[in-house]
Amino acid sequence: MRLHVGCAMWAHPPWQGRFLPQSGERLRAYASWCNAVEGNTTFYATPSRSTVESWAEQTGPDFRFVVKLPKSITHERRLADYDEELRAFLTATEPLGPRAHALWVQLPGSFGPADLGALAGFLRRLPAEHRYAVEVRHRAFFEDAGSARDLERVLGSAGAEWVPFDTTVFFQGRPNSDAERDAWTKKPRVPRRSVALTDRPIVRYIGRDDTERTVEGWRFWVGRVVDWLREGRSPTFFVHTPDNAEALTLARRFHDEVRERLPELEPLPEREPVGPPTLF
Description:
Blueprint: E1 4-7, H1 26-30, E2 36-39, H2 49-57, E3 64-68, H3 71-76, H4 83-93, E4 100-106, H5 116-125, E5 132-135, H6 140-143, H7 145-158, E6 161-162, E7 165-166, H8 178-184, E8 202-206, H9 211-217, H10 219-230, E9 236-240, H11 247-261
């Protein structure tokens, strides 16, 4: 029984010197805190193969990367005429091996029910050796039962998961910080969705910069994740806050809360200590 938890990144300036070393292999240190990470950087540019090889070297085979497809495929080309970009992406990420838990297809908010044919054709052409997870942001998929069923059929035929991004707690009150105000304009405002389509559900959750409001807001997910684990599923839960300053500790806290209800759950790794700063 294993729950994977993680954050949106493995290098974040507020963590350096506090949770992670000032320099060196920060991913290796991050992997002593969490056993999964979102691969958001690949959305902006496909990394070199040597860079991805270094990611694999710094993590164990059970570590999970949920790697986002480049925006040139999902947002600019909208799942059409993408062969060259996709080939380059798959070649570059190949060194991750089993660490590539799922390839993440994040679609723009304008990608709606009328575009499901493009998504179905795209998923049919993808290599069968990978798992796929799709995140949609068009409100129709959350508010119209027929559209939701149509999307579930498309995903189900490809064995793909639907990734919810739960922003309900974040939007319950007006923003109180610069980070919250920035996120307020960027995060999708859609209803919460919590139905797993596969044995490996993936959840993205964003709270507030107030830690206790974040923790209070994930009570629903603690219960749902416990249910999934009891059903034999292996979920991955990503914790976000607008400034992400405490996201590392929060991810571990979420895991601890689930483990309080399921003591048989495999524990997270021991955290790698951060040594004192050196003069040289």
